[in-house]
Specification:
About 30% of the residues lie in helices and about 25% in strands. The chain is built from eleven helices and 17 strands.
């Protein structure tokens, strides 16, 4: 009987806690949409303060290194306590507003739940990032992202010698990788351009670079410096690929290549893996990203579980991603979770090129144009429509033999694209 009473009391406590949690104000935070993201730029609020919001409604737009993304409301409530104005660069995890119920007040403690209370210096720096107001530099604490701290520790770098480029002078991973020391000369093309503008060069040059374009430049530089790339190239007869396109005109070459690549990745899980924290991490799903050109950058839209998707579904998803990317209306799910990337420049009449890996992915496939070339067929010269593929591999995760085996299976699939294809 006593035990039953204890269980009843415990259940009552749990119900009370659940009820309290259900009526507590819901924080709206700057989301992390990918592993290396440290900040996001708030472009626009889709709702006004005091306006009623329903879960799933578009609430705000942010710009990351990959794209402009539309963020949905995490719950129902009234938008209140907006702390970040449009145009502000905000650290990931920072509370930027609240969703409250009628009669509720915004909590007095605005410290982000993920990092706990910050020191006075950190709070001032965060306020500067959100409001744009100047703040005196911290003298006791060094603001640094977790990733940057780990990189500095691995490289034995004295943090006191590094100049932070993040909000409020925070040291970011790229500051460690590029060696931004106090008073040092610019070390990247972007920094050189910024220095020239500051020195009196034409201010229009580089002045309108978007966050996506700027961070893409930084990330590709970081990848090129830190990832040991090697490249494998293969010329393939695309006669069957062209025939398949003629029979299904609504399915593009890119759509079919996504399906064929996913099929090959299923046979070669090492190529679908990621290099994370000094080791190879297998990925359970095959999520193929497609590089999409937008106004001043390139973004990647992800086709999740491409190995199980029908060709028509891949084509529809690719069209949807392209339209949303060019309209600046991508959703978080559109750009997250990629395990492999395809970059196709064939429509721009590029014969062949090499692409830079998107960490932590282990490889990226560069696709050139299909063009008639003279080749040997059964020992005799003939003209065939040829396609050049270049696979960029991270040598830490993939060796040459594994990369070659994957590329060979992909080539065989392209020569018989309708064999084993999902309907």
């Amino acid at each position: 009987m006593a035990n039953l009473q204890s269980v009843a009391n415990l259940q009552s406590i749990c119900n009370l806690q659940s009820a309290i949690c259900n009526v507590m104000p819901l924080s709206v935070v700057m989301p992390a949409l990918e592993m290396a993201q440290e900040t996001g730029k708030l472009l626009a609020w889709r709702k006004r303060e005091g306006e009623r919001v329903t879960k799933g409604e578009p609430l705000l737009e942010i710009e990351t290194d990959k794209a402009i993304v539309e963020i949905e409301a995490p719950g129902d409530g009234v938008l209140a306590g907006i702390r970040a104005r449009e145009g502000a660069v905000v650290p990931v995890g920072q509370t930027i507003a609240w969703l409250v119920q009628p009669g509720e007040a915004v909590p007095a403690d605005h410290a982000p739940a993920q990092t706990g209370r910050r020191s006075g210096a950190e709070s001032a720096a965060t306020a500067s990032a959100i409001t744009g107001a100047p703040v005196a530099p911290a003298t006791t604490d060094i603001k640094i992202s977790p990733k940057a701290r780990r990189l500095a520790r691995e490289r034995g770098i004295d943090l006191a010698t590094i100049t932070g480029s993040g909000p409020g002078g925070e040291i970011l991973a790229n500051d460690i990788l590029t060696g931004r020391t106090h008073g040092s000369a610019p070390t990247s093309g972007l920094e050189v351009a910024q220095a020239r503008v500051g020195a009196g060069a034409d201010p229009r040059v580089g002045a309108s670079t978007s966050t996506a374009a700027r961070v893409m430049a930084e990330r590709t530089t970081q990848s090129w410096i830190t990832v040991p790339h090697f490249f494998l190239t293969r010329d393939i007869d695309a006669t069957a690929l062209i025939g398949a396109r003629e029979r299904s005109p609504d399915v593009t070459h890119t759509d079919r290549l996504v399906a064929l690549t996913a099929r090959a990745l299923k046979k070669h899980p090492q190529v679908n893996a990621s290099w994370v924290e000094g080791g190879v991490r297998p990925n359970a799903d095959i999520n193929v990203a497609i590089a999409i050109a937008v106004s001043d950058a390139v973004v990647t839209g992800v086709i999740h579980r491409a190995d199980t998707a029908a060709l028509t579904d891949i084509a529809a998803r690719r069209k949807e991603l392209t339209a949303r990317a060019r309209a600046g209306k991508l959703h978080p799910s559109d750009i997250s979770g990629a395990t492999f990337t395809i970059s196709n420049l064939g429509m721009y009449h590029v014969d062949a090129f090499t692409a830079i890996i998107v960490p932590p992915q282990a490889a990226i496939l560069a696709v050139g144009a299909i063009a008639d070339r003279a080749v040997a067929v059964d020992g005799k010269p003939a003209v065939r429509p040829m396609l050049t593929l270049t696979l960029s591999c991270d040598h830490r995760a993939i060796d040459g033999a594994r990369g070659a085996a994957f590329l060979n299976d992909l080539a065989e699939a392209i020569r018989a694209p309708e064999v084993g294809a999902n309907p």
